[in-house]
Design brief:
about 575 residues, Rossmann fold, 3 domains, 6-stranded parallel sheet, 23 helices, 20 strands, globular
Length: about 575
């Protein structure tokens, strides 16, 4: 029996356990869509290819299983931003492009672009399927590359002549691997001598701390991290812009390893004698491992589950190739540390919370500070709810609010936010993916107005799929984060080309069949969010706020002649 290439692609992905595909349906992809339909794989048709990519990325981050983003040749170009966002978080999304004909490659075929070359810098593996008989082989190879070692997205380009042509349904299935179902990826176990050297340094430390990164999440080791921090009394910090590894209410969790968004982390880093980075990179967020962020006198240990990530961390004093979970298992065997260092960091966190709340300026009742907005939204939420944040200053203030609320006992099921590229517009797609995977939970997005304008069309997918989410707009009338940088950078101390008109976001939702409310007083925030949740509809609470410069923007623009984002 012969099957079209698109059907063979669908069957190969079904064997891997793929349950969800996101697309913007196009003619180049029809055989694959027919295959997904026949295989019973859910397909969500998004209003834009970038939205499809962000939905696939969000789904992958939540489930830790690759989802598929399927686009046509011209759609590939608009999916690139989503590919970039997934790359920053090392999210193993499977991007599939229906591409121009293979037999006329290089001759100016219909919608021909070099998608393989374009995707290569933003994926672990980018290749054109050159033979329909080898479709299963290409899928198997791409899948294993995506989830192994340092995970990341992959890209398969499927020429239209292979997509539509027919091939033997069992093509090459008589070759190894005979079992092509999904397997857990291989994990790196630490060399005993290297592990012993690392453990000696840690056990002899008096003020150790742990910084956890995305590698902990992808290795499914966040519970082990929490247990190690709590039982050994080691303060734990989270790398900014990466998946949340622990609830902010947990005893060992202190906050972000970001001296601007969470000032006590500066004291911890300056006074620590050993910093243990697990599953993270020494990039710009970590000042590349250099002083003054991490002092020269501090021993810096990097633990990573793949050689690619470890090679990136060349600045470490000591590097250990190890699956994060295996490392935490070994670390759990050492003696607990004295409480003095742990309790100091707890006390500093409490003092920081009190100071942040005290520093919020007194505003008239019809003026709303973005920090108060993010705090009040969480009051309206429950333990089983998901919070998504998106934007510039909206993101920064919300991160601070999440830490404050967690210190005071607020629990949330999970938190999603933009990755290392700070890409605007991911909030609504991520929220939709969260609702898709957690239908019994409420999902709330706090989005800047600029962020919503960047990706707001994605809300149609939530309406279409009956996935009600609540979008709270931090509406300050412009790109506030950029305005504040400009006012400190420009010689005339003004901002330029960053203002929006007064946009009635809430009526947009009403027009689509959802619930909408305008909020102009702080006292109305909590009741409005609760009404939006109770409506059972995809809803918008459009909150008029007053822009306030966040600590991170203030710190990075404190000197006009040296104003920089880093």
């Amino acid at each position: 029996m012969k099957l079209r290439g698109g059907m063979l692609l669908a069957r190969a992905l079904q064997l891997k356990g793929v349950t969800q595909v996101f697309t913007l349906s196009g003619g180049f992809c029809n055989p694959a869509l027919e295959g997904f339909m026949e295989c019973g794989i859910s397909v969500i048709n998004a209003p834009h290819e970038q939205v499809a990519g962000h939905l696939a990325d969000g789904h992958t981050r939540i489930t830790r299983q690759p989802a598929v983003c399927l686009v046509g040749p011209e759609g590939f170009a608009t999916a690139i931003p989503a590919m970039m966002e997934a790359w920053g978080e090392r999210s193993p999304v499977i991007f599939v492009t229906g591409s121009s004909t293979l037999k006329r490659q290089g001759s100016g075929g219909f919608k021909e672009i070099d998608d393989v070359a374009i995707a290569a810098p933003l994926t672990k593996y980018s290749v054109s399927i050159t033979d329909g008989e080898r479709i299963s082989e290409f899928v198997d190879r791409a899948w294993k590359i995506a989830i192994s070692g340092y995970p990341g997205g992959v890209h398969l380009s499927m020429p239209v002549d292979i997509m539509f042509s027919s091939f033997d349904e069992n093509a090459m299935l008589d070759e190894r691997p005979f079992d092509r179902t999904a397997k857990m990826p291989p994990r790196a176990w630490p060399c005993p001598e290297d592990l012993s050297a690392v453990m000696d340094i840690i056990q002899n430390a008096s003020r150790p701390l742990i910084i956890g990164g995305h590698g902990v999440w992808w290795s499914r080791s966040e519970e082990k991290l929490e247990a190690v921090g709590r039982t050994l009394r080691i303060p734990v910090f989270n790398v900014p812009y990466h998946q949340k590894l622990m609830g902010e209410e947990f005893e060992a969790y202190m906050g972000l390893a970001d001296i601007h968004q969470y000032a006590p982390s500066k004291v911890a880093l300056q006074e620590s004698d050993v910093v243990i980075m697990v599953g993270a990179r020494l990039d710009n967020q970590m000042n590349f491992g250099n002083p003054p962020f991490i002092p020269q006198s501090t021993r810096l240990i990097c633990v990573n589950g793949s050689h690619e990530e470890l090679e990136f961390n060349r600045a470490a004093d000591l590097a250990l190739l190890s699956d994060p979970g295996a490392f935490f298992d070994a670390l759990a065997q050492i003696k607990p540390f004295d409480r003095q260092w742990f309790d100091l960091n707890r006390r500093l966190r409490g003092e920081w919370v009190d100071q942040m709340l005290a520093d919020i300026p007194e505003l008239e009742d019809d003026k709303i500070h973005p920090l108060n907005l993010a705090l009040d939204v969480q009051v309206a939420m429950n333990d089983n709810d998901w919070l998504v944040i998106d934007g510039g200053n909206t993101h920064f203030w919300s991160e601070i609010a999440i830490n404050i609320a967690g210190w005071k006992g607020q629990k949330l099921a999970n938190i999603l936010h933009p990755g290392t590229f700070s890409m605007l517009g991911v909030g609504v797609p991520f929220a939709t993916a969260a609702k898709l995977n957690n239908p019994d939970s409420q999902v709330v997005v706090i989005s800047g107005d600029g962020a919503f304008l960047s990706g707001g069309s994605s809300i149609e997918a939530a309406f279409q799929e009956n996935l009600p989410v609540v979008v709270v707009i931090d509406n300050n009338g412009g790109l506030d984060c950029i305005s504040q940088q400009q006012e400190r950078l420009f010689a005339n101390q003004k901002h330029f080309a960053t203002d929006f008109r007064d946009i009635p976001f809430h009526t947009m939702f009403e027009g689509l069949g959802g619930h909408g409310e305008l909020v102009e007083k702080r006292a109305d925030i909590i009741p409005a969010v609760r009404r939006a949740i109770a409506s059972g509809k995809t809803a918008c609470v459009n909150v008029k706020t007053v822009g306030h410069i966040s600590p991170i923007v203030l710190a990075t623009t404190s000197k006009r002649d040296k104003a920089s984002i880093e």
